[in-house]
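Appendix B.2, paired examples.
Example (i):
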Amino acid sequence: MLISLLYKIILDKRAEYGYGNYESIIDDIARDTDVDSDILLNLALNKESEARLSLKDIDNICRYFNITVDDLFLNILLSGEDGCNDDDENSYYSNRYKCDVHIDEDRNDKWGNLLIGATLSIGFVDIPAICSLSSDGFVELAPIQTLCVDDRNFLTVFLVNKELRETIEFELYNKLTNSAWYQYNSHYGEVAVSLYPYQCEENTLTSSWICIDNL
């Protein structure tokens, strides 16, 4: 799965490029890169576009932001895709960015008895998370509330696109339910994995978002 990180790049570069007016962001980039605004918007939101993204467009975007193609796109090969084999350490998949879940084995005073530290790995980024255990046998895995700006901007890439977000969450769900930690704690039945911070409303990350409705 090839994912555009243009949204994160725009968020990261807002101060440097003077982006203060939500309505003008895409128009400014389109004017300065000579890339159609619809192409830019769909690329930022990881949506298909009727207009074709050309190599020239990619080159212009990279030159404008002073980045490489590897900075613009993230390749995550999910477990259901062709060529993916978790059991083969030498496989193509094992050498590519992927989604993964790590649960800390030891509970400590920081989290208490029902909260366990965890990590969500998405591509090359490790997001600090919390595994919450409820008394009625429910497991909830989600990022911590106090994410750094860079992590928030990275998550925004997935949060703005429902289909992409659900795909990543489903992949992380499979990783969790197939993990040694979960097998050992199999008395916990229901599981939920979210890319929204633990016990927060969906608009919690708005401080790092571009307002989609106004683009």
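Example (ii):
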Amino acid sequence: MRILYSACLFAICTATASAAEPTAMAAHDHGAMMRSQSNIWTQLPLLKARMKGQDMAARKVIMQPQNIAADAIEAWPNDLDDANGHRSLTIGMGGAPLDKPASGGFQMLTAREEQDDAVRVASTVHYFGERGGKNPTTMFDQVKHELEIVPKPYPREHSRYRAKEDWQFSVRFKGQPLVGQKVVLETSNGSRSEFMTDALGVVLINVPDDFKPEEAQSKGESHGMRRGADLVLAVSHEDGGKRYLTAFNSNYGEDAFAKRDLALGIGFTLLGMLGAAPLLRNRKAAANKEENTNA
């Protein structure tokens, strides 16, 4: 059953544009339990972060795999000299607690599932914001799995991807760039696009502007917060009779100018109304004067 499920996932990155139907998993499959707890918008493997605990001082980051049956999550810090560097985090029933290394900053996280002739990898980046950080180029340069898709570069600290922006990703197999490789993009807002890598194995992704105007938002929107959604990039490759599928997931927000444009539009409308008011008063006064004269 797990092999059949993997085959369905690899089909997403083939010529067909339709998403594969979910495949039933055995009740004891740890990956199936994780999937049942999530809002399924993709069949691709994901690593999602959630916060546990109410008190800020005691809050913990829990990494939760979705659509992948993995026993552990591998974590790499950007600082290679970190004493608590590359480590393996055991996945329990609720996920894997993510400990903060001494260097803080960015962390590259991956989960791997290998079944006979199929290898599937989920990957993402987590940022510990209380420590300033340089862009994690060192972390991305490390070869961690056979097939990889990595940001080139990643958004700076306290930032994220945004709608209408172009971002580059490097696709490589065993450390070498994959040329002319198809990359699939899916979002939790329902978008699906395909892109191709160039002669250097780099793909240029345009983040879709797929937020619906009428869509309701959480309480934070009234305080100026922009809406957010999830995205995942996936690539598949076959080599030596083995199939590889790797996905990278992150989140993105609305166009940086979305609310600014709306505010400017309202502002110009109000200015236009204010500018027109004296003209209307003058016309009314002239009309009244003419009426009195004729009388």
